Please model this.
Amino acid sequence: MNLIEILSYGFIQRALLAGTLIAVLCSVLGVFLVLRRLSLIGDGLAHVTFGSTAIALALKFYSAASLLVSLPIVLLASLGILKLTERGRLSGDAAIGIVSAVGISAGIMLASVGGGYNVDLLSYLFGNILSISYEEVLIAVALFCVVMLLLGLFFNDLLAVTFNEELARVSGVSTHLISAVLVMLTALSVVLAMKLVGIMLISSLLILPAVSALQLALSFRACIALAALQGCCSVVAGIFVSFVTNLPTSATIVLLNLFCFACACGLRRLITISRNKQVA
Amino acid sequence: MSAEIVATDRLACSYREGSVLEDISFTVAAGDYVGIVGPNGSGKSTLVQALLGLVPISAGSARLFGARCDGFSQWGRVGYLPQSLHLLNPIFPASVAETVGLGLLSLKKFPRRFTRHDRAIVDELLNELDIYDIRAKLIGELSGGQQQRVLLARALVNKPELLILDEPTAALDPETRERFYRMIADINRSRGVTVLLVTHDSGVIGQHASKMLYLDKRMLFYGSFDDFCHSAEMSNLFGEYSQHLMCHRH
Amino acid sequence: MKRIVIWIVTALTVGATLVLAGCSRGEQRVSSKLQVVTTLFPLYDFARTIAGERAEVTMLLPPGMEPHSFEPKPNDIIRISKAGLFIYTNRYMEPWAEQILKGIDSKRLRVVDAGQGVAYMKAAASDEHDHDGHGSHGAAGQAAVMDPHIWLDFTNAAQMADTILAGFVTADPANAVYYRTRAGELKVALAALDQRYREGLSSCASREFLHGGHFTFGYLARRYGLEYHSLSGIASESEPSAAKMAAMVQEIKSSGVRYLFAEELLSPRLTETLANEAGVAVLKLYGAHNLGKDDLQRGVTFIGLMEQNLLNLQKGLACRPK
Model:
């Protein structure tokens, strides 16, 4: 099947469009998250989304309306993670682990105590990049605009805070606000994008492009650009490759990201070796 | 509006484990070069952190430029070089130019964007501090001395009136250390920048600083270095031999 | 200090509430009637029909849950051990059943493998043709897995009813006559259902029906001579590949069907995407593994669901009414 034929399918077109938008915004957010050791926050917040959706369904808020319940809960959870790292003297990963455990156990508790649902809870949570509807593409576009706009407005503040909080504060940056913006944007992205592309993709796109870019980047702006590029390319290539090889799409995209990471590491090693040779 | 750059009144700071600073009262005038010395754990770092609003104050007050430290907002007038111990993430992908540029944030209002003019200011400063040739290097790849100069540049780029340095030379070799202190002294003299320097090295104080603040949780001495060396009280406190050592290290 | 106390009290309160909630759910009315525990909905429906008022039947699967991913909890195991009769479908559908039963030591408990005596079909790979149930020869290295959805062929269902009846009679011989009568009525109803299906699906414009869910209706298709394709394999977790989805779209378009059938309970996203792409409408087809909470409360029956299926099949395949 050739390229034109593949592109003729509506679900492929929507997967490409929504997928690349989500990949870019996750990759960029991911750079900040990885540098602050919050890389697993995507996973953690996804568990909270699970728990909050269970609450929403138990209160009979179905499909889109469930967002009215989940979104505030996940936003609060993200702020909770932040608070735990600041006050509780916990590192980011431990804080995420705690909040994540609360989320998923709450969901499972509710699912069993609640006496059942009309639909299978798990299947409603985990999206599939191949089943994105037209309305969901619009959601992806809106999310992309909101996240990119806010990241753009706060870019230098985010950079300062990520680099060193003390110095940022002495430069007049309000570190609490900026950190809150970062985690809340992540929460928003996780809740909305999880429905579209599923948890595996979100989690991987938040981490892998960022760590690859960190291997090679020569400046922070270059790092952001590289991460976004990898995210975007891995989704596009992943969709086509998975089509041709008849493999599951999400997993293919993740594997491509891993491949990019391996290449980045290799390149870095080559550069270091050649640099040492020059010096010697 | 007095010419007092820094003023504290019975300042005290305490953590859950106990009090770190008690009853600190002193003022710093414009153009002063104050060395803050004391043994380990004496609260030196805590003092400057309290001045900058980085740690909470449990009693008393502290003012910068006449304004209270909590809620202080004139960050453009301050430059800070923190202790380098836990400072830098070695993989942080920021170039020297980007890092120094961040110091200009204190002069900007939301949304903080960098202009070509800003880049020119950064370049000029990098030239002055002789780190222009490494402007594109990642900060994690630099030597200790270079990193210090980069962070000093960041602290100076917004042309502050007050420069606060916390043990800036702890990780440097003696020669680099000397150069660094000469730089600071030069900045203090030629630009009239008020300097607060926290250090272990009382020799430096003697050479460059105009005032010395000796503390060990409480303020033990505040005055000029000469006064310190000729003070009978200090002699009693430290013993003549120690005093002699501290005063004649150059 | 005060905040710590508040946190501890809150945690203890929440914990206590949950424990109490769990305990109260586990209470069972002590009754002298035969206690029957079933797994899937069809078994539950047959068993309660046969039981009438002389036995109490419960279903292990909580409403709304997809059975292929069901794992029994400690409470469930206790329920089974306290019952007089435990009915499960077959070891392909409930692979955990035999394991649990090994661990239960109850002289009173009779176990019924409802699928005993049924002729099983091999599971086919989802995108291969499966006219007569032979597995795809091209599937590299796939172990022969049996298709567990036997209850969708109503002759099998009648067989299952007999097997279940035998279980009832062994467990509660005192009411054997009562149970036999009711089982007899059930089988008559099932036979009538089968007849209606045969007539209803005899002259249809298309003999192919396409399903966006997992491979459920193999037995039904075989019985009524229909061609059946589904998007996913036997277990509902498999994520279909892009190529498979495209192939399904092509199949829909080339077969000329105007409806795509959707699976209940699971998220209809994939089915809707396929339907959208191919420009067809969606009709629901009940696999009847399990029911949603509301349906259960409304007292929906297996035969009732199958009648709805017949209507939808007739619509989807454009069958002429007899």
Q: What stands out?
A: The first helix of chain C runs from residue 2 to 26. The beta strands of chain C are 34-38, 55-59, 85-88, 110-113, 208-211, 227-230, 259-263, 281-285. The first strand of chain C starts at residue 34 and ends at 38.
